[in-house]
Amino acid sequence: MLKEFKEFAIKGNVLDLAVGVIIGGAFGKIVTSMVNDIIMPIIGALTGGINFTYLKFVIKEAHGDVPAVTFNYGNFIQNVIDFLIVSFSIFLFIKIINRFKSEKKEEEVIEEIKLSEEVLLLQEIRDLLKSKEDSIG
């Protein structure tokens, strides 16, 4: 059982997943900072200084020690905007990575074509040499 676990833990997919989770967490912090510190202040300025996080609808007013009952739709709007920005950022990031991968694949295909041309040429030379040996011997 220990051997199986070791094989599972060392597999490339598990390590790739672990690296992806760590990078994803760091990337999430960067995007959250971008949303909170750059994009939302701009949106707030465009909407007259509205901070979505504090938007709420009061269902029942506070009375004495009893707090108000509120429907906090602003926080929901903020989270939806965060999600859309994070999703779009990840989409762009994956698109860039895929572009690099496709460029690499094109280079590999070109190398394979060159290699196959060389192999064909060597095969032709081999066949010519073989036919000369057959005609001599």
TrEMBL record:
PROSITE patterns membership: MSCL
Membrane topology note: Multi-pass membrane protein
One cellular-component annotation, GO: plasma membrane
Keyword Transcription regulation in annotation: no
Positions of transmembrane segments: 12-31, 38-57, 77-97
Pfam family, one: MscL
Keywords of this entry: Cell membrane, Ion channel, Ion transport, Membrane, Transmembrane, Transmembrane helix, Transport
Single annotated GO MF: mechanosensitive monoatomic ion channel activity
Domain of life where this protein originates: Bacteria
This protein's record includes keyword Transmembrane: yes
Subcellular location as annotated: Cell membrane
InterPro entries: Mechanosensitive_channel_CS (IPR019823), MS_channel (IPR001185), MSC/AndL (IPR037673), MscL_channel (IPR036019)
HAMAP family attached to this UniProt entry: MscL
Function, in words: Channel that opens in response to stretch forces in the membrane lipid bilayer. May participate in the regulation of osmotic pressure changes within the cell.
Family: Belongs to the MscL family.
Subunit structure: Homopentamer.
Annotated protein name in UniProt: Large-conductance mechanosensitive channel
Organism: Anaeromicropila herbilytica
